[in-house]
Write a structure and sequence with these properties.
- The chain is an alpha/beta fold.
- The protein contains 7 helices and 7 strands.
- It has one domain: 3-Layer(aba) Sandwich (Alpha/beta knot), CATH 3.40.1280.10.
- A 7-stranded parallel beta sheet has the order 3-2-1-6-4-7-5, sandwiched between helices.
- The radius of gyration is 16 Å and the shape is globular.
Length: 179
């Protein structure tokens, strides 16, 4: 086996990305404090061509050199919008027909691999603060909660790791399993 060179991968340009069909998923960051986590989420969202990222509360916004360190330019390709509160973002998502899920350990949460998605639906996932998670007010506004099963001694994953896993699962179910 030989590793492919970047030129051999035939990646989209930023303009091609902006005009391409998107995965019907918006990722919402609820008071995410780490600029590196924000950048990493941008990069994962670019990889799976999601609709948009909503940055809320204390979550930093581009342009920002620290976000760029991990986004590597994905902050230029992925559409994003800032909201003063996550509640405002959720209200807008509901008004545009999105099913909104908090990614959180909650009573009655759905295990990520067991979620049902409809290829005609629009979805949003909310990822919370690195210490406090998704605010309870935002959980209350959500249509449901998704939880990643964990089997070790820790009770959480890094927000950027969680984003990659959740976005991948939506892509797998909406794009790959639909074939």
């Amino acid at each position: 086996m030989r590793k492919l060179k970047t030129i051999e991968m035939h990646r989209m340009t930023v303009d091609e990305f902006r005009n391409a069909e998107k995965l019907p998923l918006t990722v919402v960051l609820d008071d995410v404090r780490s600029l590196h986590n924000v950048g990493s989420v941008f990069r994962s969202c670019d990889a799976f061509r999601i609709e948009a990222i909503y940055l809320c509360g204390i979550t930093a916004t581009p342009p920002n050199a620290e976000i760029h360190k991990t986004a590597l330019g994905a902050e230029d390709s992925v559409a994003w919008k800032y909201f003063k509160t996550t509640a405002e973002a959720v209200a807008e998502l509901h008004s545009t027909g999105h099913m909104v899920f908090a990614v959180e350990q909650c009573e009655g949460s759905t295990k990520l691999h067991e979620m049902d998605v409809d290829g005609n639906g629009r979805y949003a996932v909310i990822l919370g603060n690195e210490v406090k998670g998704v605010h309870q007010e935002v959980v209350d506004m959500s249509d449901g909660c998704l939880e990643i099963p964990q089997f070790g001694t820790k009770h959480s994953l890094n927000v950027s790791v969680t984003a990659g896993m959740v976005v991948w699962e939506f892509a797998r179910k909406l794009l790959l399993d639909a074939r």
